[in-house]
Amino acid sequence: NCLIHFYKRNMSAAVSRSLSVSTSDSSKKEKNVRKNKAVEKEKTEAANPHGQYLRIRAHQARELNPKGKLDKVEALREWDEMSSVEKEPYVDLYLKEREGLGDNYRKGRKRKVTDSDKEGNIDVAVSR
After folding, report:
1. Mean pLDDT: which of 40-54, 59-73, 108-122 is highest?
2. Residue 90 class from Cβ within 10 Å (0-12 exposed, 13-18 middle, 19+ buried)?
3. Quick one: angle between helices 84-101 and 49-64, nearest 10?
């Protein structure tokens, strides 16, 4: 890093310290509230088949080495080389997870309104 960035970083930290003298307790509480909200959020979308594949590959990498990470470039290359028959188990996992969500699947999703929708040319297909 260069000297200018070092100076800016130290100056901004000094200014923020001088402005917030006794707000450290309240900021900790706010962080805890944010963490709790993330825990309360329910899942509304299942991971697609590629996501299922990555999840399993990451789990396998952690089994071999607890600190190991998934090589995403290699995993993507392997996924692209797979045939549709080899991808079927991951599609099945996706469909099972989607069915498991039940009424929560895409719960609370809002449809984007386009100019054609405003004119009344709405052509919506409902499938469930």
Report:
1. 59-73
2. buried
3. 100
